[in-house]
Every structure is written in C-alpha cells, then in structure tokens.
Amino acid sequence: MKLPSPAVLKSAITIMRTLANIFESMLDQPQEDMVIADPAPKRKSTHKATIEEMRAFCKSIAVAESDGDYFFHKNEAEKWPKNWQAKIRSWKSCGYLPSQKAGVTQAPKPAPKKVTV
Fold it and tell me: Does residue 85 lie in a domain region?
C-alpha cells in the first residue's frame, strides 16, 4: 500500500484542525444564538367527508355510489384515512370495493360425505 505524500497529509491535517476549531467555537456559543432548522411540517389530514361528498366522488371516478356509502360507514366506525380520495382510488385499482367483489364467483363447496353405520 502506497502512503500519501507529505503535502497531502499536511493538507488533511490543516482541514481537520479547521473543522475542530469550527466545532469548538460552536460549543462555546450559547444555545439561544444557534439557529436550528424547523422540522418538516406535519402533513395535515383532509377533512372528514360527508356521505354526499363521498357519493359524488365515487360517481366522478366511475365507482358505484353504494361503494361510497360502504366506505363512509366503514370510516365512521373506524378511523378516517388522511386522504380518503386516494384510499378509494387505491381500493378501486386493487378490486377491494364491494361492487367489484360481487362479480367474483366463489368455488362451489364440496358436498358433505355420507356416513354409513
């Protein structure tokens, strides 16, 4: 392994000393003088929708109004998502809405076996 030249080592030592001086001066400052960046603002939740808004939105994205009713009552019973419009679009694309599930046929159940004694 080749060692760095003395000039490179001298530059690195100078940079490290400069950084050490900067950090030392920061520690000497009172904390009131230090500028601390504000944390990122919290994402505000959207307003809680009314059932009429829910139906209108569902109609605008070609979803049955009954799915809007279902989604509204489900969120009333549980917790409203931060962005209910995005949640409905997501459910629509994944096929989670009741009207989408109604078209799915289930496999028939096997007939019960007869027991002879």
Answer: yes
